[in-house]
Amino acid sequence: MQSLVEKLGVEVVAIDGKTHRGSYDRESKLKALHTVSAWACENRLILGQTKVNCKSNEITAIPALLETLDLSGCIITIDAMGTQKSIAEQIIAGNADYIFSLKDNHPTLHQQVKNWFEIAQSLDFKGVDVSISQRVEKGHHRIENRTCYTVPVSQLPALHEQNQWAGLTTVVMVVRKVQHWNKTTHEVQFYLTSLDSDANKIGSAIRQHWGIENSVHWTLDVTFHEDECRIHSMHSPQNFALLRRIALNALDREPTFRRSIRQKSRRAAMNDQYMVSVLAASIANYSPLL
Length: 290
Description:
The chain has a domain at 2-131 and 146-171 and 190-228. The chain has helices at residues 2-8, 58-67, 85-93, 107-122, 199-209, 211-222, 236-253, 261-270, 272-286; strands at residues 12-20, 33-40, 45-51, 75-78, 97-102, 131-139, 142-152, 170-179, 184-193. It is globular, with a radius of gyration of 21 Å. The protein has a nine-stranded mixed sheet with strand order 3-2-1-4-5-9-8-7-6, with helices on both faces. A hairpin with a 4-residue loop joins strand 8 (170-179) and strand 9. Helix content is 37%, strand content 26%.
């Protein structure tokens, strides 16, 4: 995996969990399978997956997944569930950087950062070393305006348990304003990161994180019907989940047939020559491991 990451030039790796809703078994009192995956955003490649213990949550699964990967030099993006001091320490020890979503599961720290940004913004960040990046995107019958503000943590008063966050360098505020045909929504999100204050770089990495939701989880449910799958015996749910992700990687990396994953899958099922080309593309991408 280290060779693959180096060959492809992986930079941003998003980590997120997914519940396989159809894998529960009411009669056996078996909960639905929950897995955590690592997704190379620019390369559209699933790097790894681990199962969440039925009596635990993503907080214990994410460190286990990170242990299986060598992500030195990468930027790891994780949603609020994984915003933990121990995970930050593990990422920094692995010579990588992190961007953590900061929400109400850390109420004191979240409120401190929120209050500071509200005051600083009302004063137009006068006297503050702030980096600002603004981006407007149009599509899907909407206009999205995103503004990213990054400030070195040294500019803020001492934060709650600040020294316990390994490598913490910058705090981030992202303001999203989305104009639909019939309404306008407004959202403000805060982040902690070990990266230096660079709104363009950090804002881009935050934006790329959502690829794991849109390009992986959505595709698995809509194209592979993962949530509808009622396989639940023994290790079958986890095994089939892994096979789907291997299939998604293979189909996504095949460049000659520029169609949807669903169309590629059907063509591979009916055309042996195309199936061989899909496998050949996968082997070419994984050649450093062979």
